Amino acid sequence: MSQEHDIAETGRQTSQIWLTAALLYFGAAVAVIHLTSNGRSIATIWPANAILVALLLADARPRWRTVLSAGFVANIAANLLLRGTLAGPILYGLANLIEVAVAVWLLRRAFGTDNPLRSTGAVLRFILIAGVLAPVTSGTLGSLTALLVFGEPLWTAFATWVASDGLGLLVFTPFLYAAFRGEFVTWFMGRAWPQRLEAIALLAMAGVVAWFIFFGTSRPLLFAIFPPLMLITFRVGRLGTEAAVMLVAVIGGAATMQGRGPVVLIAPDTATHVQAFQVVLATILMTCLPVAAEVTARADLTAALAAHDREMTASALTDPLTGILNRGGFESEARMLLSRTSSTPLSLLAVDFDHFKQINDRWGHHAGDLALRHVATLLRSHTRVQDIVGRSGGDEFMILLPNTALDVAREVGERIRAGVHVSPLSVDDKSVAFISLSIGAATSHPGERYEDLARRADRALYDAKERGRNTLCAST
């Protein structure tokens, strides 16, 4: 029954992926052909293939047949709807499938499951694969189709195809790849509201600036798009850059094909407008993506160094055997708490492992290590969240009890002593070691130094040993 359920679930997921890929591809293809093509020419920018590439890259086990067949059917449907022929859509569809397959195969070989924009070198490889190799591979069939079916000039069609498909992959693949992997949601949920609002405001500003440059003025103000893009890159990071570049591409492409914006000032014919906009978009990509990758790489390096520093600091302050604070770490915490809580009582328990040498002599040092770890675990389990446990050396431990008077400290110490005494250590399958502790308790006086408090707790511990061990004594 479980196997049948798994098969049904796999079939359902496959159907959902096919339908998602087909609908997204069809919608993107119809929109682009309608906005950037005259019905016969190749579109100015082709983002539809980026949908398939991103879906295949984001999937740990790519469903090649499902995704490619969905794209092929959607491509034929979109071209048939807007171009009115069958031969052209079929050939265009085959060319696009070749491009998607080549792009995904090369990108997976180059990056595996890593993000292709993680460093400047990776960005350059991504640009080579998605912007040159994949569209050049498919451009031959695509340009021949444009020539034979629609009568477009071969070399013009080839150049337009390579630029259109290359820009489509470069602009939209990073954004869609991150979206399909849930990176935008993860980033958004992992930030505080001020950061979220800042990112939204910066993207909105980039959209407003892009709209003004392409729709709101006839002046050549293309340079004005770079400040908001760079600001987004440095403040939001790679994901913000991907979203902003895609936003500029959509707004600029729509304006250019409507004969509006700064690039229409270059020449009166539409073909030159298209080429000029492709150059503009390529310049934005070549500027922003490497910078975003470098910023991301430096941020990752900074985070890695910070994590390493924290790890090294924790290692320097932690006892490697028991995992609790070592002497230095414990004393540092104690001094800090004493300086902050001079007006409230703070108690210290000095704990000694009774007859620890007998365990080493009878079962060996390995059993001694087990016993120390066992006691450290019990000390943490019988103390409160705010209490601090440390190993001062050998078989001696210290426990700091913040905001705790001496009578409460005695109760905590007795609970610890009794709990350890009834929790023997299983040395091996046949041997059990019963453990007892001697404990000395002391409570801080106003203005007292840690060294003086520790000396009084040690004196109380000595008294507990003198009384026969497995007991607690307090220093007043």
Tell me what the structure shows:
The chain has 476 residues and is an alpha+beta fold. The chain has helices spanning 2-36, 48-58, 64-83, 87-111, 120-150, 154-180, 183-189, 193-216, 226-235, 238-257, 270-317, 327-340, 356-363, 365-381, 406-421, 450-466; strands at residues 347-353, 388-393, 396-401, 425-426, 432-433, 437-443, 472-475. The strands form 2 sheets. It has a 5-stranded mixed beta sheet with strand order 2-3-1-6-7, sandwiched between helices. A hairpin with a 2-residue loop joins strand 2 (388-393) and strand 3 (396-401). The longest helix has 48 residues, at 270-317.
Quick structural summary:
The protein is an alpha+beta fold. 69% of the residues lie in helices and 7% in strands.
Notable traits:
7 strands, two-stranded antiparallel ribbon, 476 residues, five-stranded mixed β-sheet, alpha+beta
Count the E strands.
Answer: 7
Low-confidence stretches: none
Distance between the termini: 71 Å
**Content-based structural category:** alpha+beta
Largest sheet: 5 strands, mixed
* SSE sequence, one letter per element: HHHHHHHHHHHHEHHEEHEEEHE
Count, helices: 16
Within the largest sheet, what's the order of strands?
2-3-1-6-7
Overall body shape: elongated
Rg computed from alpha carbons, rounded to a whole number of angstroms = 35 Å
- Average pLDDT confidence is 86
Residues in β-strands, percent: 5-15%
The helix content, as a percent range, equals 55-70%
